[in-house]
Each structure stands twice: as C-alpha cells, then as structure tokens.
Design brief:
This protein has 337 residues and is mostly helical. The protein has one domain. 78% of the residues lie in helices and 1% in strands. It is built from 14 helices and two strands. It has a two-stranded antiparallel ribbon. Strand 1 and strand 2 form a beta hairpin. Helix 1 packs parallel to helix 14, helix 8 runs antiparallel to helix 11 and helix 8 runs parallel beside helix 12. The N and C termini lie far apart (50 Å).
Length: 337
C-alpha cells in the first residue's frame, strides 16, 4: 500500500486531512441542525417543543459521532497539532463538552419526568445547545486568528461565536421546515427569514478576516490567476443566499412541495464556506505554524490507522444514511412506550 499511491509521507497526511475535514463538515451540517433546534426552544410552545425533539430524536447521537471521529483523526494522525490546538482552546473545549453532556441528559429526562418538572429540562436542553454553539463559534474565531490571544482576536472570536450560533439556529429552522407541518412549520419559516441575515454577516466576517490575518492566505486568494479561478466560489455563495431568500418568501406551500429545499441549499452553502476555509489554510493544520506534513505521525503508523479508518468511516456513514432513510418524512408525536 505504501508504494501503490507514491510517497506515503505526502499522500497519507493529505488523505487524513481530507477525512478529518469531511468529518468536520458533516458534523457542522448534521449536528448543526439539531443544536439549532435546541437553540430555538425558547420561541416554541410546550407541545411544539415535543415535536421539535421528535424531529431530531433518531439522529442526534449519530450526528455527534462525526465530531468524535474528527477529533480522533486529529489525535492519532496529527498528534502535534492536537496538542497545540487543544492546549490553546482548553477552556472552550471544556465548555463544549459540558454543553453536550447537558444536552444529552436533558434530552432523556425531559420526556420522563413529571410534567411540572419538564420545563427545567427544556431550559437545560436549550442551555446545553447554547453552550455548545457558542464555544464552537469561539473556537472557530480563534482558529481563524491563528490561535493568538489578543484583545482583537478575543473580540473577533466572540463575534464568530454569536454568528455561528445564529447559523446553527438557521439550519435548525430549515430542518423544522422539512420535518414539521402546520403552525410549527410556519414558525420555522419565520425563524429562517430572520436568521438568514446572521448567516450572511457571519460568512462575510470570516471571509473578510481570513485573508487579512495572513499575507499567505491573501496571496492565495487575490493573486492572478487565482482570483479569477476562485471567483465562482463567492458568486455561488451569493447566488445560494439569494435562492434561500426567495424560497423562504414563498413558504410554507400548501402542498409542501419544496419543504426540503431550504435545508438542502443551506447545507450546500455551509459546504462552500468550509471548502473556502480549507483552501485558505492548506497545507497548515495549525495556522501558520504546523503543516499537515510536519504534524503527521510516522507513515508506518498512518498506514495501519488508514486501514482501520477505511473500515470505520463507511460504517459511520452507512449508519447515518440508514437512520435518515428509515426515519424520513414528517416528525410524529414523541413517545417512549
């Protein structure tokens, strides 16, 4: 295998970086919508909250698996980067883990406690979603800023924390358009119409900040002929935002014909933003400090891990696809009997 694809010191780090990137992208899109549903809890009524939980119930555990996979790949394939990144982001990672635990506990207990105590667990579910979203947004901002702690980078990271939270609530609302109907679906359309502007501002802020913090990234985007070759990316993103706005203005439709479209378009928009960031930072896994080649484990170790990942990754993907196929259609009444 080491000679089949050429130099393993080159293709193995690239392969693991691609798998880690794929895992992060899938996590952001899939766990993003179920975090978003939790973020929208304060705007829903009691019965609507049950329906919202039912819409994510079969999926949220599998969605979080992609985060575990991404961190696992970072640990075993790029251990030097793992140490550097998690050391710099220790506090927000701890907040994220507490939020994820709180979400999981609240998800189970809210359906099993006495009715008068249910509201507490609804608040806990929202709080866990908020903690997780804000911490991930803060980590994104610090990563874009090169993991440097200054007053400016802290302010930018707090800004991205708010924007990513809005983006998660937006994709959560588009998910509810797909999975619900009636009054709750109409509310989800309203939430989406308000949230789209936060998505625009967030993507715009990160897109502007990324080339400004690094001359290397600026050169990658704005030199000739790269600027012309990359122009389709921002143009496609702008077109998708316009399409989303037009779709949301027409909803909800009586025949529910396009209920899938906002969530699908949002997922594509997130993917474009992710690919733009991946292009900006490649080949660095720690911005301007460690490349994927410098941070990678020994090729002999990576070959063994690669063989295992080729087995695990399709299993996780297959399970995720199967769950979405089996539980397709509108969310029904939440029951545990």
């Amino acid at each position: 295998m080491m000679t089949l694809f050429g130099d393993p010191e080159i293709w193995l780090p690239v392969a693991f970086a691609a798998m880690m990137g794929l895992s992060i992208l899938v996590y952001v899109c899939l766990d993003g919508f179920d975090l978003g549903v939790g973020l929208l809890f304060p705007f829903a009524e009691g019965d609507e909250k049950d329906r919202m939980v039912a819409s994510i119930g079969p999926f949220w555990d599998a969605n979080e698996t992609w985060l575990v996979l991404a961190i696992g790949i970072l640990l075993v394939a790029f251990p030097a980067a793992h140490g550097t990144i998690l050391t710099a982001l220790y506090l927000p990672v701890a907040v994220m883990l507490v939020g994820l635990i709180l979400r999981g506990v609240a998800f189970e207990f809210r359906a099993k406690v006495a009715p008068e105590r249910k509201a507490r667990w609804n608040h806990a579910f929202h709080a866990g979603s908020l903690m997780t979203s804000l911490s991930q947004g803060y980590m994104l901002g610090m990563y874009v800023m090169g993991l440097q702690i200054t007053w400016f980078t802290l302010a930018f990271s707090l800004l991205t924390a708010m924007f990513l939270t809005v983006a998660y609530s937006f994709i959560g609302a588009t998910w509810l358009i797909l999975k619900t109907d009636g009054a709750l679906q109409r509310k989800a359309v309203g939430w989406s119409r308000g949230g789209i502007w936060g998505v625009v501002l967030g993507m715009g802020a990160i897109s502007l900040a990324t080339p400004l913090v690094s001359p290397r990234i600026f050169e990658k985007w704005f030199s000739v002929p790269e600027i012309f070759l990359l122009m389709p990316l921002p143009l496609m993103a702008g077109g998708l935002i316009v399409l989303l706005w037009l779709l949301l203005r027409q909803m909800p439709k009586s025949d529910d014909r396009l209920a899938w479209a906002p969530f699908t378009v949002t997922t594509i928009l997130f993917a474009l933003g992710f690919f733009g960031m991946a292009y900006s930072f490649y080949p660095y896994v720690v911005p301007e400090t460690l490349t994927i080649y410098e941070a990678a484990s020994a090729p002999e170790s990576l070959v063994i891990i690669f063989a295992g990942t080729l087995f695990v990754l399709p299993m996780i993907a297959g399970y995720s696809v199967l769950s979405y196929v089996i539980f397709r259609g509108k969310a029904t009444e939440l029951r545990y009997d």
